[in-house]
Amino acid sequence: MSPPVKLIGSFFDSPFVHRAEAALRLKGVPYELIQEDMENKSELLLQHNPIHKKVPVLVHGDHAVCESLVIVEYVDEAFDGPPLLPSDPADRAAARFWAQLMDTKCRRPLVLSFLTEGELREGFLRETKENLALLEAQLDGKRFFGGDSVGYLDIALSALSRWTAVFEEMTGVSLVGGDDFPGLRRWAEEYTSNEAVRQCLPSMEHLKAQFSAKKDKVKSVAMGHGDAAAGAVIR
Amino acid sequence: MAAAAGVELRLLGEWLSPYCIRVKQALAVKGVAGYEYVEEDLEHKSELLLSSNPVHGKVPVLIHRGAPVCESLVIVQYVDEAWAGPAILPSDPYERSRARFWAAYIDDKFFPSWEPFFKSKTAEDRAETFKNAIPAVETLEKALTECSSSEGKPFFGGDSIGYVDVALGGYLAWIKAVDEVAGTSLFDEAKFPRLAAWAERFAAADAVRDASPAVEDIVVFYKKMQAAETGAEH
């Protein structure tokens, strides 16, 4: 029998932790969620992710898996259940390419679209809309990026759903929720309505409270340190 | 669209790019031969490159039966999955997660920590940036120890070249070239015996030798590059 699974997450509702939880729930793997206080990191976290000291970390028996997308692939491969990645190598390569794009190219300007103002904001918005247009084209009228069911790429792009909706509501900026990307808008609704996903999705209210409290910190890190920063601060 | 009919497999690359070198190494390890290699002039990118990688316009791009695959590590995994041949990633899910973790570390932490050293020109800069590159090397020495286990297997992949080996391997000729010009030794034998041994074994492997540029050619290029930049500053 498979040893128990623990997922080290954080009190801040990180989209990276969500990726790991979504994968576990979609795969049907029971797990215990441990909420980490990132201001006061535990021995458990430091022991299992000594190099990056970040969440999420999946602990499966005496195996520790770090990095959210690596966790998603691990969950897909280590447990039985509906497949998260497609089976065809070319489709898998496409899913990995777009997931990587989200983290290396899309995330920072997306976050900064909401956190900056004026001309700076206009620049980030332009860049974000270009990125969203690429994703809209990739979605190509499908229900999910994975096809008929939620898959790896949907999970990888999940920050475009609830988290982006919260930002949009708080700032009045319209991106996924607007009329420019009808496919993505519908996708976000489908994703957040999914039975398994819903159980590990933070509520709008909860996220609003989190962002209000952390806004300045999120912004300074995102502005200062480049691509990894916008993700790093909410990891 | 420019893709020529009947070309089953094509790699768009640039001979100096570590990311292209690692894809060539992966293809060689997998035993995939007979592909067409196209050397791109990055100052004048081909229509084929721009249409195959519209998002980034970068090399490497692998075009298999007309369908492009982009991003070097995505390509390496694709090569592993689309062809039969020696496994590049291990079969065990946990071992695979470790391989992915270390490959990401090499690109996200190791290379950015080495890059300032590669770019430095004065003796002072070099000393400082070389020192700053060492912590990541220490981590890689530990990673190799973890991956190769107590039996002291030669590669990150164990007995044979694997995913992490080509991830780091793409940079190796460059590391050696810069060491030669700067008079340094990044994978110093005394300090990092396992990495030093790995570097030697990796470079000597058949698959790698044919797929990697000659260190001397990179030395020539690197010296020209440094001289040109210094000239421009004055």
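The first strand of chain A starts at residue 5 and ends at 10.
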